Structure formats: C-alpha cells, structure tokens
Amino acid sequence: STVGGEDLGLSAQDIWTTNICAVAFDICMRFVFGAVCDKYGARVPMGCVLMLASIPTACIGLVNSLTGLICIRLFIGLAGSTFVMCQCWATRMFTKEIVGMVNGLVGGWGNVGGGATQLVMGTLLFPLFKVITDGDVSKAWRTVTLVPAAVAFTTGICVICFSEDCPKGYYKDLKKSGEMPEVSAAASFRGGAVDINTWMLFIQYACCFGVELTVNNAAVSYFVKRFELTIESASAIASIFGFMNIFARGLGGWASDKANGKLRMRGRILVQAALLILEGCCIFIFAEMGNLAASVVMLTVFSIFVQGAEGSTYGIVPYVNRVSPGAVAGIVGAGGPTGAVSFGLIFRQLPEDPEMAFRVMAGVVLASGVMCLFINIKGHRGLLFGSDEDLSNLSKIQLPVADVDANEDVDVEAKA
Predict the structure, then answer these.
(1) In the chain, is it the N or the C terminus that has fewer CB atoms within a 10 Å radius of its CB?
(2) Strand, coil or helix: what is 65?
(3) How many whole angstroms separate alpha carbon 124 and alpha carbon 128?
(4) CA–CA separation, 230 vs 218, rounded Å?
C-alpha cells in the first residue's frame, strides 16, 4: 500500500481510510455467512466467495484515484468472510473436545496468508515485476495483483469440486435422504444474536484478530517511518506477525482444550483471559521500543499472544449455542474486522503518533481480558457464575430446525 499510495498521491490518512474500507464489507458478510453455513454448509459459500473476491483483486491495477481504490478494497474485503466458513466447516468435522486446536490450526494456517502476502508480494513478486516492467514502479504494483487473484480463483474452484460438506458427504444428499433436517437460517441467526456471550466474545475477538489486522496494515509503514527501512526490509519484518499463525493460533486452541480437560469451561475462559491480558501488556511494551532488534523481538512475542487469543476464542464459540453454532461463529468472526475498523480509525486520527495509537489499543485489549469474568455459558461454570451440568450430548453437532425457537436446546443430532 506504501508504493501504491505514493503513486496515487495519497496521504497516510487516505491509506488508513482504504484499509478501513477493506474490512467494512467483510463485517457485514461475516454476520450473514454464519447462518448461511448452518443452512447450506460451508463448502459452496467458501468457493463462491473466493472466486468473486478474485475479480476486484485483479482489477486493482486499474485504480487511478482514492475513490476508485476505496471501492476496489471494499469488495476485496469480501474474501475475509471465508474465515466464517472455515470455522463452521472445522466445527462440523471434529468433536468439541478438540475443537479449540482444530479451529485454531485451520484459522491460523489461513491467516498465514497475511504473512505470506507481505513476504511474497513485497520482497519477491514486486521486485520481479519491477524488472519485468523495466523499472516502472507504477506498472509493477498495478500488474502484480493479478497473481493473488489467480490463486484465489483457482482455490475457489478446487474447494467446490474436490471437497465435501461433512464426513458423510453433501448436505443436499443428506437432506434428501432425511438424515439431516432442513434448517431455518433466520432462526439460527436469532439464536446466536440474542445470547450475551456471543457479543462478549465479539468484543474479545475484536481485541485479538482486530489487532492482528490492524498490525498487518500498519507494520510496514510503521517500520519504514520509525526505523527508516526500505519497503522490502519492512515487509520481511512485518511478515513475522502473520507467519506466527503457523503455530500460535493452534497453540491457543490447544491450551484451551487442555484447560477444558481439567477445569471444563472455566479452564477455557481462564486461558482466554490470560492471553488477552498478556497481549495488552505486550502492546504497551512494543509501543515503547526505540531499538529495531528489540521491536522485532517484541513483535514476535506480541504476535504469539494475539493469535493464541484468537484460537482460544474459537475454543469457546462452539459451546455458546448448540443450536446455532454457525450463527455464533459468524457474529463473533465479525468482531475481528470490526475491531480492525475501530483501531484503524484511531491510527487514522494519529498518523504522526502511532505509538499513542498502540497505547490506546493496548488499554482496550486489557479491558476485554477483564470481561472474561462475566462470560456465563448455559450448562457451564464460569469464573464467577453458573455451574457445570451433565451434558452428555455435548459432542453432538446440533442444528436449528425450521419453526423451532433457536433459543431452546433442540435435541437434534446432525448427521454431519
């Protein structure tokens, strides 16, 4: 975005505006796709969204103004909503005893794309395209985006053609045979939306994945400005944050599963609180680093807690409402880009003082960690309230059924 911004004559505030727009559409679609996955499964929506998002990605080189860039990035943000399908798919495929680690691994490996993009685009493809275009920087950044567009479109086709909705096959076949009931998407969404725990997790996810998206957008320009690095060097350093997803998010989910084995839901919530509080402390420290080496080390440590909290969040999500797991996953997932927009606005208002923006963000994250005291999921003991009940059917994957109140625990075992 630094090279493109210079070519289009954009200010730092303009670039932050485009970053915010890139996740705005993603927020809306995450709300929608959770309930859609409860009804149709995750496979087809994921494939279609990947193919659709590849179109504006390929067209970004045609942009000649701030308005055009905002419009393009708005629609590119659609691709981010595939995270909801990813989490719903994994939850359908595996039991809840290991759901934290599974959701953490698949979500984390998906987020590795953020680090891979920073590294491959900034340090490999962009220099290569500069050579191909005889040093024409403008033409290089305008054509290099064709590569991720082609990758996204191809992946979308593969998802639809070579995968299944669930271990027993395709949803449409299971519904025809009567093995799976028809699902009301509206009832599913309603069931997830009326649960206060959904919204507390929404806020907490805003304070981990929202922070990750913000750092992905801010890191390159931050290192270029503060330490006077080249774009290539800054991109390589910034990619560390995304690449930690290879293990950090899965590690958070694994810790949540292990704590659940010893303390049940209280264990999962304790892990969540610890990771968020440590994350907030690390952001405060990172903002004070004046040495490049120390900043890189702190960025690495900071990223482990950020992504660990993302994994632990989705260790809790499948328990919130057994009838509407997709809707809850979608709403909580929307918290990530919502947090990115909120924190992005802070950075946009403080273009000359990013350190203060980091401090404000750290304070919000710490407050979200304290919020864990008030999470109280039905049938599970929280840190302050509730009690554990005998939930022998907890490993069953349950779905909302048409004409049934989604707030009730419907004893329907999905054959997925």
Answers:
(1) N
(2) coil
(3) 6
(4) 15
CB 208 within 8 A of CB 309: yes
Burial of 177 (0-12, 13-18, 19+ CB in 10 A): exposed
The DSSP 8-state label assigned to residue 180 in this structure reads: S
Give the best-scoring range by mean pLDDT among 141-145, 234-238, 256-260.
256-260
**Token digits of residue 217:** 């957008």
End-to-end CA distance of the chain: 42
Query: 124: helix, coil or strand?
Result: helix
CA distance 209 to 276: 11
Enclosing H/E stretch for 91? helix 82-93
Report which DSSP code applies to 229: -
Q: What are the φ and ψ backbone dihedral angles of 395, each rounded to 5 degrees?
A: -75, -10
274 band by pLDDT with thresholds 50, 70 and 90: very high
Q: Distance between CA atoms of 79 and 76, rounded to whole angstroms?
A: 6
Specify the pLDDT at position 321: 86
Q: How far is 25 from 354, CA to CA, in rounded Å?
A: 25
- Output the 3-class SS for 8-53: HCCCHHHHHHHHHHHHHHHHHHHHHHHHHHHHHCCHHHHHHHHHHH
Phi, psi for 386 (deg, rounded to 5)? 85, 175
**Residue-wise pLDDT tens digits, 139-178:** 877 888 888 899 999 999 999 999 988 888 888 888 888 8
What pLDDT is attached to residue 320? Answer: 92
CB 189 within 8 A of CB 34: yes
Please enumerate in sequence order all residues whose Cβ is within 8 A of that of 273, keeping only pairs 6 or more positions apart, or say none: 369, 370, 372, 373, 383
* Closest residue by Cα to residue 391 from 404, 381, 402, 405: 381
In terms of Cβ atoms closer than 10 Å to its own Cβ (0-12, 13-18, 19+), residue 400 is buried
Cα gap 32→159, rounded to integer Å: 20
At which residue do the structure tokens 């710490």 appear?
366
Q: Answer with the residue of higher pLDDT: 373 or 188.
A: 373
Look-up of token digits 């942009």:
63
From residue 51, alpha-carbon distances to 57, 164, 232, 260, 334 in Å are 10, 18, 29, 38, 21
